[in-house]
Structure formats: C-alpha cells, structure tokens
C-alpha cells in the first residue's frame, strides 16, 4: 500500500496490515543542495526499505538526480528479478520514473513496477472478502445475468452470517432496485454485459468531450466498482455496506462526493421547489450539505463548485491544491491484497477460495 509522504501525519499506520511504502517526491526528499531533508529523518523513513522517490518530470530528474548508488525499483525473488508480486517476492531499488512528456519535447520515461494501492483503497483481508461477496451477489442480480440465484446461495449464507442480508436496505441505498442491481447515482438497472464492455463516454450530457481525454488511458468497463462514500485518507471506507456496481460515467460525475440515496435525502427532509407566481413547484430533496439534489424519479443534481470565501470574492487567489499521482497504482485487478475493481475479480466460483 502506498502512503503519500504529505499525508503521513493523517494516517494511523497501524491500521494497515501487510505494510506500506511511503512515496516521496524528489523535492520532499532532497534539499536544494542535494542533502537529505531533515523531515525525512523525523518520520523514520529509509529510501529503499520503507520508502521510494517518485520522479514525474524531466525537470525534477535534472534538479534532483538520483544518487549513483540508487537503482530503479524492482521485484526480486531468491535473488532474481521477477515481474509480479507473490510469495517470497521483495522490493528492490530506491526510485520510480513516471515521467510524462506533457509540456516538453522529451520522451515519456516510465520505469519501475506499480508500487501498490493508495491508502484510501485499503481494507483488511476480511473486509475485502465481504466486499467481494457483496459485489458477486450484486453481479448475480444484474439484468441479464447468466447466474441463477440458486447458484448464489453460498453468497447469501455468508451475507446472512455477517448481517448483510437485509436486501431492502440495499434498495434504500440505491444499489438494488426491484431486486435488480442498480447504479447508485442514476438508479438505472445495470445490465450484466456492462460489467465487461469497455466504457464509451459518448452518452450523457456534460461528458461529450470526455472520450478524447480518456482515450488510451483507461480500461474502465461501462459499469465498475462504485463507492457510496468517497475513499479518503485517514478513514477506512472500502467496506461491504458502501460498495456497489455503478456506471463509470456516473462515478466520474460524482467525483469525490458522497452518493446520497433518495431515502437518505428524504430523511434529511429538505424539500426543494421553484417559486412560481401562483404556486411552489417541488422538484425534489437536497442534502443538508447542499451537495446533491434528487427528484423522486431518478434525476440527480450535484454541486460542482462550492461558494467562494469572502477573500476570494474580493479577488484573492484560491488556496493551492495537491495533484494526485495516479500512474503509480497497481491496476486494481492486479492488486495483491485483492481489492476488486472489475467484475473479473469477483468470479462467482472463486469466492469460496478466498480467505
Ligand atoms: Zn449510473
């Protein structure tokens, strides 16, 4: 599991069984004169042991070149280089290159294997297993599924034993509708083949140009793993009660927001309406944090941008934002600790073999 250096204070590292590796940018590890930054020592970080340095631009590489005794990260078993994680495989090396060509004439330069999954995606093995069981059960209940409910009896027994078999609660959460698996955002029923078809971003208003941005960069399926509660640092949210199958486009639109269900919004009891001359036309319910509005018929509105601060209203610049480092991640289908991303990861027959 990867822990970004700048998040180290927010995270209770004891919660992560199976260990972690700290990712540092060169400017976090090195001082401008090439010496090692003092704050690295403070956190007990040892490059090559429990940490690595990530280079993302040609500029960084020139400004903070790796010391001569450093090598690119790799995997090793019994003294020989291997390409995949497994029993007895250890990490070697000190740095990873994910240098993109954007903004330069210089070529893309990627070296070093994926380093794991990021902390917000982490869950302990038992929780992971239960997430897989929920997802497998939901796969069986997609529209046009080749599986029968009789084949899913073992899944139901596990869910019953864990108090996860109250399926009307799944309905209230929006992950199930009339007994069929549904996308928690748009509430539309998920067809089984959508778990396997590659996503096209053609459909849907607001995403007309998205295909250009993701071409060649995504292998996402039409419907994929969907979290009702956003995965964030400092909290373990990959949990059986918050996973679902949802549309990739809906996931993109939702971003890092909580997916409130219609039932939840109705419970918050903030009805929203348009004041017409002679009457109030109600359109739905809004969340108390004003992030989401739902009509009772499936339409959803999301707050895309928050109000500005008083200072920003007067022309002050916004506070800086940290960019995520995507390319480092194991495509989750390969993740060693089994966090599922696509339907292939939750083959019904394999569930019995899991821990
Ligand atoms: Zn959807």
Query: By helix and strand content, what is the structural category?
Result: alpha+beta
Mean pLDDT: 81
Helix content: 10-25%
Topology order in helix (H) and strand (E) letters: EEHHEHEEEEEHHHEEHEEHHEEEEH
- Tell me the number of structural domains: 3
Question: How much strand content do the residues show?
Answer: 15-25%
What radius of gyration results from the CA coordinates? 23 Å
Count the helices. How many? 10
| Chain oligomer state | single chain
Ions and ligands: zinc ion
Shape: globular
Poorly predicted parts:
203-218, 331-355
- DSSP strand tally: 16
Give the N-to-C terminal Cα separation. Answer: 19 Å
The main β sheet shows up as: 5 strands, mixed
Question: Can you lay out the helices and strands and say which pair or pack?
Answer:
Blueprint: E1 2-4, E2 21-24, H1 26-29, H2 38-42, E3 51-55, H3 58-63, E4 74-77, E5 80-82, E6 90-92, E7 95-99, E8 109-111, H4 125-140, H5 153-161, H6 167-173, E9 176-177, E10 180-181, H7 210-214, E11 223-227, E12 243-247, H8 248-254, H9 262-268, E13 271-275, E14 280-286, E15 292-294, E16 300-302, H10 310-313
Parallel strand pairs: 1-2, 2-3, 3-7
Antiparallel strand pairs: 4-5, 4-6, 7-8, 9-10, 11-12, 13-14, 14-15, 15-16
Helix pairs in contact: 4-5
